[in-house]
Automatic annotation (TrEMBL):
Catalytically driven reaction(s): a 2'-deoxyribonucleoside 5'-diphosphate + ATP = a 2'-deoxyribonucleoside 5'-triphosphate + ADP; a ribonucleoside 5'-diphosphate + ATP = a ribonucleoside 5'-triphosphate + ADP
Nucleoside diphosphate kinase-like domain sequence ranges: 1-135
Binding site for ATP: 9, 57, 85, 91, 102, 112
EC category: transferase
SUPFAM superfamilies on file: Nucleoside diphosphate kinase, NDK
This protein's name: Nucleoside diphosphate kinase
Cofactor: Mg(2+)
Catalytic-site annotation from UniProt: 115
Physiological role: Major role in the synthesis of nucleoside triphosphates other than ATP. The ATP gamma phosphate is transferred to the NDP beta phosphate via a ping-pong mechanism, using a phosphorylated active-site intermediate.
Entry GO CC: cytoplasm
Lineage: Bacteria, Pseudomonadati, Bacteroidota, Cytophagia, Cytophagales
Transmembrane region(s): none
Length: 137
């Protein structure tokens, strides 16, 4: 098995969808390795999304991601990164497939309910951003 990193974004937490989303994740065969509810400052959101610092939506994204509590998690499954991105659906909910988390819970391109790491390497980096000693979990 391998691991991916996810976080339920402020819109979905605020709207009370965390439980439904975690239920979908577990039903899809992912084991929750680590989980917490926390709040990012705009500066820490900026650090998390540093790869996007040159993109035009970067400032809005950092403001949005620090607008309310989030629920970061480390997940484990065979083929975790790719299977999880299939489960969440396209970045823009207008393009998300039926039955995906974003199709069900995303409000917009920005407030799109959930994050999923895009590579094994980033899953490791992003998980360690929120959780210490992850190898021991
Ligand atoms: P993540 O799982 O959150 O990383 O989404 P992604 O990999 O599907 O998208 P990407 O990494 O390209 O963008 C990161 C996040 O920035 C997205 O999830 C959106 O919340 C936001 N985002 C991406 N593109 C746009 C855009 O054109 N406008 C705005 N406002 N936000 C965007
Ligand atoms: Mg991404």
């Amino acid at each position: 098995t391998n691991r991916t990193f996810t976080m339920i974004k402020p819109d979905a937490v605020k709207d009370g969808h965390s439980g439904s989303i975690i239920k979908m994740i577990e039903a899809a065969g992912f084991r929750v390795v680590a989980l917490k509810k926390t709040l990012l400052t705009p500066e820490r959101a900026g650090e998390f999304y540093a790869v996007h610092s040159e993109r035009p939506f970067y400032n809005d994204l950092c403001k949005y991601m620090s607008s309310g509590p989030i629920v970061p998690m480390i997940l484990e499954k065979e083929n975790a990164v790719a299977d999880f991105r299939t489960l969440i659906g396209a970045t823009n909910p207008a393009n998300a497939a039926e039955g995906t988390i974003r199709k069900l819970f995303a409000i917009s391109m920005e407030a799109n309910a959930i994050h999923g790491s895009d590579s094994d390497e980033n899953a490791q980096i992003e998980g360690s951003f929120f959780f210490a000693h992850v190898d021991q979990y």
